[in-house]
Amino acid sequence: MLTFFVLRGKGNKNKQEYALLINDLEKQFVKKKMKNYEKAITVEAKHKRQTQQEMNELQRDMKYQVNEEKADTESKIAMKKDAIQSSDESIQLYEDEQKSLQEKLQKLNEKQQDLAMK
Q1: Which residue among 3, 17, 53, 96 is least enclosed by CB atoms within 10 Å?
Q2: Residues 6+ apart with CB under 8 A from 118
Q3: How far apart are the C-alpha atoms of 74 and 56, rounded to whole Å?
């Protein structure tokens, strides 16, 4: 449980401790978001692999289909390709967000060092 308090005339030491506390909370938040993005990447990659496998099965099955069935299967394959592309885009977005959060974490670490030196 986080308790906030007001710093009125308590001196620089308490203000520094408060700033360090806030900085630490921000770092925890960033780390949690990074873990969540990592989980999302894992889920999306798993979904992509599964969709790829389904698409491969459809392509193998086409070998034994008549023309009417092939048209339906080609449509399903196209939808699978779209899903794979969507997964790739999501993974890229999550990775970009992770990089941004990594930079934020680095800046927060620098800020923590600066605050500790005051």
Answers
A1: 3
A2: 12, 16
A3: 12
- Measured between alpha carbons, how far is 47 from 43 in angstroms, rounded to an integer? 6
* Residue length of the chain: 118
**Alpha-carbon distance 94 to 10, whole Å?**
43
Residue 48 contacts residue 85 (beta carbons within 8 Å): no
Residue matched to tokens 């620098």: 110
23 near 108, Cβ under 8 Å? yes
Quick: pLDDT tens for 57-78: 999 999 999 999 999 999 999 9
Cβ pair 51, 80 in contact under 8 A? yes
Closest CA to 73 of 85, 49, 52, 56: 56
Q: Which residue has the tokens 């800046």?
A: 107
Taking each helix axis from N to C end, the angle separating 67-117 and 12-62, rounded to the nearest 10 degrees, works out to 170
Task: Please give the structure tokens belonging to residue 106.
Answer: 């680095």
